[in-house]
C-alpha cells in the first residue's frame, strides 16, 4: 500500500509543470525542514521557504513528507555533528530527554548549542546536495522516469554524456 503512495507522489513530483530548478529547490527546502524540531509546523515552514525562494510549493510539501520518516535520524545527526564540531562530550542523549521531561532546561543548555550548530551545518549540506542531485535527475531523466513509473516495464537509463569516438588516421 505505501509503495503505491510513494509511486503516486513521485509521479506527481515528476509531472510538475514548473522548471527543474524550481522543483528541485522546492523539494530540497521541504526536506531540510525535518532538521528542525518544529513539530507540526514543518509543512507551513516548507511552504513559507518555497514562497520566499520562489521555488515550487507542491515540491516543497512533497519533499517535507518524503523526509518526514527520517525526522528522528535528522535530530540525532544534528546532535552528533554538533558534538563533532564543538568537540564537546555532552550528557547522554537519554539523560537529555529525561531533563526535557522534567522541564529542567538548565541541563539542556549544552545540548541546545550543540544541536543548533549541528542543525545549521546539516541544513546547508543536505539542502545543497539534495538540490544538485534532484536538479540533475529532473534535467536528464524526467521523461524516462515518468514513463517507467506509469508503466510496469524495467527502468532503462541512458548515459548522461555520450562519448565521442575519435577515428585514428
Note down, in words, how this protein is organized.
By secondary structure, the chain is mainly alpha-helical. It has one domain. 68% of the residues lie in helices and 0% in strands. The protein has helices at 2-14, 20-32, 42-52, 57-67, 71-86, 93-101, 109-150. α2 packs across α4 (57-67), α2 (20-32) packs antiparallel against α7 (109-150) and α3 (42-52) runs antiparallel to α4. The chain is elongated and about 65 Å long. It starts with a helix and ends in a 19-residue tail after the last helix.
Distance between the termini: 60 Å
Detail the poorly predicted runs: none
Could you tell me the mean pLDDT? 82
Number of domains: 1
Structure summarized in a few sentences:
The protein is mainly alpha-helical and 169 residues long. The chain is built from 7 helices and no strands. The chain has one domain (2-150).
Per-chain topology:
Layout: H1 2-14, H2 20-32, H3 42-52, H4 57-67, H5 71-86, H6 93-101, H7 109-150
List keywords for this structure.
169 residues, mainly alpha, 68% helix, 7 helices
Amino acid at each position: 500500500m505505501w509503495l503505491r503512495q510513494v509511486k503516486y507522489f513521485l509521479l506527481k513530483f515528476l509531472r510538475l509543470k514548473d522548471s527543474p530548478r524550481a522543483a528541485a529547490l522546492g523539494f530540497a527546502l521541504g526536506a531540510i525542514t525535518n532538521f528542525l524540531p518544529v513539530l507540526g509546523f514543518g509543512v507551513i515552514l516548507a511552504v513559507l521557504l518555497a514562497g520566499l525562494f520562489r521555488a515550487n510549493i507542491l515540491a516543497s510539501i512533497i519533499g517535507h513528507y518524503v523526509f518526514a520518516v527520517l525526522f528522528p535520524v535528522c535530530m540525532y545527526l544534528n546532535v552528533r555533528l554538533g558534538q563533532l564540531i564543538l568537540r564537546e562530550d555532552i550528557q547522554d542523549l537519554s539523560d537529555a530527554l529525561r531533563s526535557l521531561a522534567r522541564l529542567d532546561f538548565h541541563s539542556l543548555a549544552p545540548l541546545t548549542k550543540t544541536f543548533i550548530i549541528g542543525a545549521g551545518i546539516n541544513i546547508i549540506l543536505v539542502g545543497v546536495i539534495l538540490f544538485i542531485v534532484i536538479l540533475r535527475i529532473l534535467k536528464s531523466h524526467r521523461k524516462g522516469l515518468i514513463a517507467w513509473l506509469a508503466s510496469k516495464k524495467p527502468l532503462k537509463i541512458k548515459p548522461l554524456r555520450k562519448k565521442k569516438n575519435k577515428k585514428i588516421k
